[in-house]
Amino acid sequence: MAVWAADVGGTNIKLAIVDRGRILRMREIAANPAAGLRRAMDRIAPVWLELCAQTGIAEYAITAIGLAIPAIVAPESGKIWAVPGGKFADAPKFKLAAWIDKKFRKPAYWCNDAHAALAGEIKYGVARGVKNVGMITLGTGVGTAVVMRGNALTGTHGLAGNAGGHNTIDVGGARCRCGNIGCVETHASSWALAAQAAHSPLFSQSALAAEATITYEAVFRLAGKGDLLARQLRAQSIKIWAITAVALIHNYDPELLVIGGKIAQCADVIVPHMHKFIRAHCWAKWNVPVRPAALGNEAGIKGIAYLAAKDAKRSR
Question: What pTM was computed for the model?
Fold first, then answer.
């Protein structure tokens, strides 16, 4: 059951043809979120067709379309309620279902990107067989998702379990793109990292000042070499992500926490510090293991393909 899948991130969009959990061909394109979701879909469509040509799969053999979107998505209607500031701002008004029907006339399913990533880990990855699990995705922003008793937690509008990156950790902090103040994302996300580094008095002496783009890859690499600013940023970010983990445990009582997203490539450093912080600060004194996503950066693309195929089959 071949599916066109898209994992729409704030920096890049992963596009693939996925067949029963196997990625047949995948490509990344720049997200350019300021241009909007409609423009992104106009660029996504021809890439999917190119992937078909490259794999020898006819367009009619694609049975469903799946989109993982960095947005709050209603669980039943698919209505996009909200997106982070500056990302795909047209999404709530864009008639996505009508666009897909006119362009492809195929069944389509879309949901929040963290929900898709967690679905991928439950179906194919580290959370297989787990009924109560939480996930934190570390990328351009900080996403969270929760499954309880085998069902995705969504709530009325799709917000439930999804806004861990927008919990306030600093009541005197800066205003976040979401409208809240002192959010997790304003202190420990890729989009906020460059400004944090530049405002530090250590910046001019740091090797980070010579980086063309300040990324967490650079922060972790230079921290390993002893750079003082990089070590400071790494320690602060891990602490904030660990605080987010404790909040998920307190709120949803999972039996497992999964850490995913591009930054989770540094899980060998992140996870031990998270375990230590959770043991020290979590009210629940039973062990809640924290594990890196087994699917790595492919969790979202595999998860949304699985969900889209499942929804198409159910709708027949």
Answer: 0.94
